[in-house]
Fold:
Amino acid sequence: MQGGGAHTGVAPDGPAPPLREAWRFDPALTGRFGVSPPVIGGGVAVTVGPEAVYGVDLATGEAAWEIPREYGPSVTPALATVEIGEVLIYTEGYGEDPPSQAYPSASPTGGQSAASATPSPPPSSGANDGDETGDASSPGRVVAVDLQTREPVWDAPVELEAVTRSGVTVDEDTAYVGDDGGTVTAIDVASGEVRWTFDAGGPVETPIAAAEDTVIVSTQSKDDRSGTFVALQATDGAESWRMEEGVGAFYTSSAAILDGTVYVGVLDATGNRLVALTLNDGAERWAAVSVSTLAPFGPAAVTSEAVYAIDLSGQLRIISSGSGEDLWDYAVNMLLPRDGALTETAFLVPTARGSLLAIDTESHDLVARSSVAGPQGYLRALAVGGDMVVAVKGGHHPGLAAFDSDPGAPLLSAPSPTMLVPGEMVANFALVAVPFLMVLWLAGRWLRRRIGPAFADDAVIVDDVGADE
Amino acid sequence: MSSMFSARAAGTSNMPRLRTTFLRGMVVTLSTPAILIGVFVCVFLVWLVALVVGFQGPSLFMANALGMPPIGTTFDLQVISLSLRVTDPANSLLAALPFMVGRAVLVGVVLGMSVGVLDRGRATADGALRGLLVAPMVLIVTLIELGFLFVGNIVGSLAGAGLGVFVQVGAIAAGLYLLGYAPVAQLREGRGVLQSLSRSTAAARIPGSSSLALAVFYAVPSVFLQFVVSGLGVNPSPQLWAFVLSANILHVAVMATYAYRWMCVEDEIPEPSARRREPRR
Structure:
């Protein structure tokens, strides 16, 4: 997710715009849960659905394989390389009280079946069968399979104490998972051995960031405890620092780590801002404020020069990594998920209306807009690999949508609406103001003649005396 | 408190009906080239100033650019908040102070010219100058109305997201209702601040004056314009300019309406001392 454990969101080998839809993958999900952000490796895009993990051929978009999975949150899996080859690590399980897969509005006689409207965990099968499945009542577990053979890699899945929604983050030879109980679990990728656990103090619902021997965990508020960011040492899980005093966060984004700095989005009582913290001690380097109160505009991509931050209300802001000053922006003016990917020439932005935008990092113009054919739905959570960018498609018929370069198509050149074009602005004003002024003035003169002076004729007032009483 | 918002004892009044006074305000605005051209020029200047401080939109907010306080004041605060990304109230107020002073001058001049047109049939430099002199009064009214907004925000946040909007509309309408006549009262009578405020409240409470209805009708659409959250851009389309200019003409027409309404009833508003003596009779 976002290009590895550091979540920098940078993919220099990604396809160059203009882009076109290469394929769509529809796993025929009928419930209210779609698929997870994909990861790409071994020629497949891997995504997690409510009851299965899907491998999708990157070249064709056809289902390459499917692993049944215990019903659980559709959250990001991870790929890691060990001695035997590439390992796919994913989570599963909702515990004893799973949510219904049916839409809340679905009735037993409606489009959803009565059976699917009744909360009940489906039986485990496939890779999780037998002893390796572990305790069926376990609220969550972590599973590792060989990407080529889909055979289990570990002796047994790693059982968790609570449902996990954080997805899996891998850095070097360790996988990190957080759960609703606030426990962070570090697992040896090769053996499945739990290296350490840590109680972060609040639900861990966003992906954990791990890089430069540090693990950054964002917790969400629960009961009287507000959300915060905790830095742990990757080796033993010891707490390095905690961003707590004066934060009181309502919501915390996932973090990105680059060159000794942590970039996070936070929404708290003092406002909504993107914050750069020193990785060593959590000291604040700078904060960039957003006036949007909808959600923190977390870091979508980070380079040594700039942070690409997305405001949910539709503005992409490019902020200096060093100083926190705004460098440039692009107002998309539509609802945006806080996802994106930075390729060599463009920043790719999925939108809630189902299009993928490419904004040129040199000209700062919108240079491509690609949509998915068929049923409409939002796009989000990009993964880049093999000259392809793969996005999650929501709405009806959720699944994946892939885009590749379309060299034959023309590039657009649409500047941000926030770029002032003085001639256009003045011309638009004059176009309206001049005729408007004439018409209104003539109307005013006519009206004035009709009703006469204000006080010269007392009848004007007297006629209306007490009319409202 | 209940007596503050309730009409005084029934009696006769020279206050024309609401639509008649609004029509008069429109006529004053549309038939006076200085005011009409002034609206267009001011809107464009406000837009340029907003761009200079870093405003990126939504341009639709400009529909409240020439609004009377506190509607115009909320526009000032929004522009400052969005442009400078200032989120704490104290710094927002400080940064918006120059805008408030500018608005006080604008409202004063419009009132001065409107009174001139209503009184003598034409707008004069003398009228504009006299209006300029009540700018401090407009600023004082603005600050008092900010207090209404502050209380409205606190009560609104306690009331929840849905009811909060109505509380905010109520706070703006209450400010307009009670203090809307204060600047024109001082302009016409040259009295002190407290007396002008008192006279404004007394004028609003004249039976059958529909002052509360005017305040509510004015506040509701203006407040809802503030909830536009998307549509950033600094090159408004012709359609958007047409809407913005139309809305601002209405704002200025409302100012002229307040001037006309005051002039209709200024002779019948009882002196504060006389009103205090009334119960002893």
